[in-house]
Specification:
Length: 318
């Protein structure tokens, strides 16, 4: 033992420390220092699995209890305005009533309307409360639909099932089957052309629509300007069956010429930008290129499922 080491040990003893004892081999040669070599890829200050204690785990008693993790509140699916004409607007009212003052006018293409979760039945219709920059207000649910993306509509098997059921109902003239596809809140809006005035039918009216002889105003005929008046069975059903009983193409959310419609001198447009639709296109025969017809089926979402809410016809126009 060197003098320096000896004096260091004596000093520790005098200061009240423990004795400093170091053993050597009998030949007096100090052993080599043990150097720990870390394994490749393992940090030197992280114990390996083999070095980890396998004893009884420490009791959590006395350790701080972690705060419970509260999941973030999910935002409600927003609404969008539907079934409102481009030259009109939707009343945002101070209360769920047709007589309540209007706080503001929502444009026909308004989106991202956040519902508060409150719904009321009044004046023969359903009302939904929404948040707005004017404060919370009430809107008729007949002009709102849950906001969905085109991908959701075109990829949802329930939408295709709805289209198949619609075609079958038209082929068979089954009003009850058609009514089962219609939204109880929105009813079914039918237009002879997109620019002609709409006729809206409740679910109960749709059940008897194929037999009902009530005459309706469907607008005017293209070209002649003559009035279009008659029952659904007289004016609309034959044109629906012309497509449903023929070979047609189903196109999602498009009225593109050659894909979902044929050639025409008239303007082809979908009047409800927030309402997705499925076009049923019956192309023209090879020898009569102007004799094509399309019916577009407007879809709304309510209670988590798609419903039929609109039928609009397209054809060759002067």
């Amino acid at each position: 033992m060197s003098k320096l080491h000896l004096w260091g040990c004596l000093l520790l003893v005098l200061l009240g420390g423990t004795a400093c004892v170091r053993s050597y081999p009998q030949d007096g040669t100090p052993p080599p220092l043990a150097v720990s070599t870390p394994k490749e890829g393992v940090p030197a200050d992280v114990p390996s699995a083999a070095a980890t204690s396998q004893g009884t785990p420490l009791s959590p008693q006395g350790l701080p209890t972690p705060a419970p993790q509260i999941p973030p509140a999910s935002r409600p699916v927003p609404y969008a305005v539907v079934l409102v004409d481009r030259d009109s607007a939707l009343n945002l009212r101070s209360a769920p009533s047709l007589s309540a003052p209007a706080l503001a006018l929502l444009p026909y293409d308004a989106r991202n309307l956040v519902p508060t979760g409150n719904r009321r039945e009044a004046d023969g219709q359903t009302w939904v409360e929404i948040e707005s920059e004017y404060g919370n207000g009430w809107v008729s649910a007949a002009f709102l639909s849950r906001q969905v993306s085109e991908d959701v509509v075109c990829g949802d098997s329930r939408v295709q099932a709805l289209v198949d059921a619609f075609v079958q109902a038209v082929q068979q003239g089954d009003g009850a089957a058609l009514a089962s596809l219609v939204s109880p809140v929105h009813g079914l809006t039918v237009r002879h052309e997109w620019w002609n005035p709409p006729q809206t039918f409740s679910v109960s009216q749709v059940r008897t629509l194929f037999e009902d002889q009530t005459s309706y105003d469907w607008g005017i005929q293209d070209g002649s300007g003559m009035p279009l008046q008659g029952s659904f069975a007289e004016i609309i059903l034959p044109r629906l069956q012309e497509v449903a009983t023929a070979e047609f193409v189903t196109v999602c959310n498009s009225l593109e010429n050659g894909l979902a419609t044929g050639g025409t001198a008239g303007l082809v447009t979908w009047p409800y930008p927030n309402m997705p639709f499925i076009a049923l296109y019956r192309p023209a025969p090879a020898d009569s290129e102007l004799d094509w017809r399309t019916w577009a089926l407007g879809i709304v979402w309510d209670n988590g499922r798609p419903y039929l809410a609109a039928l609009i016809q397209y054809h060759w126009e002067v």
